[in-house]
């Protein structure tokens, strides 16, 4: 791709992100979100794209739906897809969202009673260069509450992987402990969560759509048996039934 078309694409995507960003709802919108024990929540989903080693074009788009609070698998969908959009840092959603959205729409057509009430996204939401990561993008386009859960720290908006950050991690004593990811502007873009007593390495939780950061944090912790919440953990590459089908 030549420099000029790439610049034009970035401009186009920045404009689209800014337009969609205005539609993000950063508050609780559902009754179950306001319940101390999430009464009324029955189905939690998780989405991810798994790449085959050495291949950044062909991937397996996965969607799982689990029961809540038991976290038993109710539905699984994995489809081999070919990504056509280029990878540009900060615009991952333009590569991945169409296929994840397709999986949700397929479920809605075929088994509407299993559509999740909230979707966990393996990636970031508001914790992003322009406060509009993959979880926000999918949330706005699907209309579903979404939570971004990243395994690694994205160094953006004045949040860095430095000694201060490590000392905050070290101060997390038990599962459920957290600290805010505060931008240089002072806005809290997400929270680092120690998701279980056994795991000292945190996950990074941020709002995607139609949920508050505190509810997203509480829900993520309630879905963790190990470090990564079950709706995302259940999508390890080894579980992808279409891996190697290219």
TrEMBL record:
It comes from Cottoperca gobio. HAMAP family: Endonuclease_5. Pfam families: Endonuclease_5 (PF04493). GO terms for molecular function: DNA binding; metal ion binding; RNA endonuclease activity producing 5'-phosphomonoesters, hydrolytic mechanism; single-stranded RNA binding. Its main location: cytoplasm. Monomer. Interacts with PABPC1; the interaction is RNA-dependent and stimulates ENDOV activity. One of its GO terms (biological process) is DNA repair. The keyword Hydrolase applies. Keywords: Cytoplasm, DNA-binding, Endonuclease, Hydrolase, Magnesium, Metal-binding, Nuclease, Nucleus, RNA-binding. Belongs to the endonuclease V family. GO terms for cellular component: cytoplasmic stress granule; nucleolus. It comes from the Eukaryota. Endoribonuclease that specifically cleaves inosine-containing RNAs: cleaves RNA at the second phosphodiester bond 3' to inosine. Active against both single-stranded and double-stranded RNAs. Has strong preference for single-stranded RNAs (ssRNAs) toward double-stranded RNAs (dsRNAs). Cleaves mRNAs and tRNAs containing inosine. Also able to cleave structure-specific dsRNA substrates containing the specific sites 5'-IIUI-3' and 5'-UIUU-3'. Its cofactor is Mg(2+). It is found in: Cytoplasm, Stress granule; Nucleus, Nucleolus. InterPro entries: Endonuclease-V (IPR007581). This is Endonuclease V.
